[in-house]
Amino acid sequence: MALTDPQSVTISGAAVSLPRVTTGDNSAGYRSADGYVDMQVGHTYGRRNRHRIRLHHSKYAADPLSPALNRPFDMSVNVVIDVPDAGYSATEAKAVVDALLAYLTASSSAVVTKLIGGES
Q1: How many domains does the chain divide into?
Q2: Could you report the per-residue pLDDT of 66-119, keeping only the tens digit for each?
Q3: Are residues 62 and 8 in the same domain?
């Protein structure tokens, strides 16, 4: 089963279309037309099942040591869902994922801001 093609993410209020560019066993890759945004989705199965999604973003910005020069910068965000092959139903696992996502996005994503700021 595959995600729909294309996928779409919204970054700073702008929707970015991500058409599928790769497909493999239990994995797929999506990339924007300009190549600055890509998303990887993959699954591994065994005694523990891991489901991973990674959003990678790159851009050019002023070099802090030479502000007259632009250089590439990049970042990524990963979500890994790690469950045993038995003991949790899909509904139970989703409830745990939903709890974490709700925690991170509550109050205008205040916890994400704190996390990026180095709080633990």
Answers
A1: 2
A2: 989 999 999 999 999 999 999 999 999 999 999 999 999 999 999 999 999 999
A3: yes
* Separation CA 59–CA 118 (nearest Å): 23
Q: Is residue 51 domain-shared with residue 95, that is, in the same domain?
A: no
C-alpha closest to that of 30 among 1, 60, 50, 56 = 56
Chain-centre distance for alpha carbon 111: 17
Same domain, 63 and 32: yes
Token couple for 29? 């890759």
- Is 54 in the same domain as 80? yes
With beta carbons less than 8 A apart as the criterion, state whether 73 and 60 touch: yes
pLDDT tens for residues 16-52?
Answer: 999 999 999 999 999 999 999 999 999 999 999 999 9
**If you search the block for the tokens 């702008």, which residue do you land on?**
14
